[in-house]
Amino acid sequence: MKKLPEINYQALFDSAPSLYMILLPDFTILEVSPPYAGATLTIREEIRGQNLFEVFPDNPLDHTADGVANLRSSLEYVLRNKIPHTMAVQKYDVRNSEGKFQPKYWTVINKPVFDKEGEVLYILHRAEDVTEFMRERDEKEELSSEFNSKMQDMKREVIKTSREIHLLNAQLEQKVTQRTNHLKEANETIKKNISILTLQKKQLEDFCNIISHNLRGPLVNISMLVDMITEGGDEEEKILLLKKLNKSSQNLNEIFNDLVESIQIRQDTEIRSKKLALENYLQKTINGLQGQINKTDATIKTEFDAAPHIKYPPKYLYSILHNLISNSLKYHSPNRKPLIKIATKKTADSIILSVTDNGLGIDLIKNKDNLFKIRKVFHSHPDAKGFGLFITKSQVEAMNGKIWIESKPNKGTTFFVEFKNQKI
Q1: 238 lies in the same domain as 350
Q2: Could you give the number of structural domains in the chain?
Q3: What CA dihedral angle connects 238, 243, 246 and 252, to 10 degrees?
Q4: Residues 237 and 283 in one domain
Q5: Residue 87: left (phi > 0), alpha (psi -120 to 50), or beta?
Q6: Which of 59, 88, 117, 294 is least enclosed by beta carbons within 10 angstroms?
Q7: Mean per-residue pLDDT for 121-138?
Q8: What range defines the domain where residue 94 resides?
Q9: In a 3-state reduction of DSSP, which class is residue 339?
Q10: Residues whose CB falls within 8 Å of the CB of residue 40, separated by 6 or more in sequence, listed in order
Q11: What is the pTM of this model?
């Protein structure tokens, strides 16, 4: 294949018969073609590197001049939308060598030139001088007053229509932008509402299941005791039944209070998060559990170097630490002293807290479906109520987090809590 010579683009630009100007995005004049310099009565070498509107200002003697405003609007449209823009006929006077302004009429096309990343590198400004055409029309108008009147009307109409088109373009662009912003806001609101409704639907379903599962038993028991008391019997038997009834009603009251607390957590959407030092809140938890720690001779080790701080509601963090550490102390193995390890690690924009013990452990195969349910316990203990893990899960999920468990019977348990949105 024959080797082709390199193209001299500067020579091609200089030889172009049309009127061209190359602008930087800040409207600095980078280059003009010789015909453009001639038509605008400027010297090419003197105007390169200068601001467009300093070289070509409006005619100060023409109070209706709007050439600068219209041209600036067209160039900004090209930069903003990255598409060409054709201007209507513009009256834009230029200065001669003596500094006097001469009337000029132009048609203009502004077109973007992109770099490799698709950003506007230059604006190619192509103009056509239609002054002669407008002047000829003016001269012809002098042939008759009627004809002259019509031509003047036509000329004014052309300019008026051009300005109206320019104004309509600007208004249309503004309306499109406003409509787009309104649609974006509406979509965001819809997405947010769908998310809230989905969560509320799930919470309602969970709450109905909890009520059905946990209140049915105590209510049936109370109903049976009332029937037995009503049916009669000796006074000693009635006193015994009343004691059982009182105990059942207390149990029902405790369950109801637990459910109320869980609802409050789920509905507390305005709770504020703060930057908290984990070491401080752990110490506060240890102080509250010091009696159990001393009684069991437990050892607590920490590793917070990876994530020493967390952004979270203070009362939730304290509650989560208290419930998890309290569980490790309550369900320790009788064959060894409790060893509890608490650590954090960072993953993307989350922090994962782990609480590991060497206690009794949980049979996950047997109990996987009941781990975080209310009133579910997996070992006998006088203080076990089966509510701590349920509340912990409610608090974690209220902040869009996750909680899960790894455990082996007679080996120990590790609880993991993922705290979301932790770009501290």
Answers
A1: no
A2: 3
A3: -110
A4: no
A5: beta
A6: 117
A7: 87
A8: 9-129
A9: strand
A10: 32, 56, 94, 104
A11: 0.44
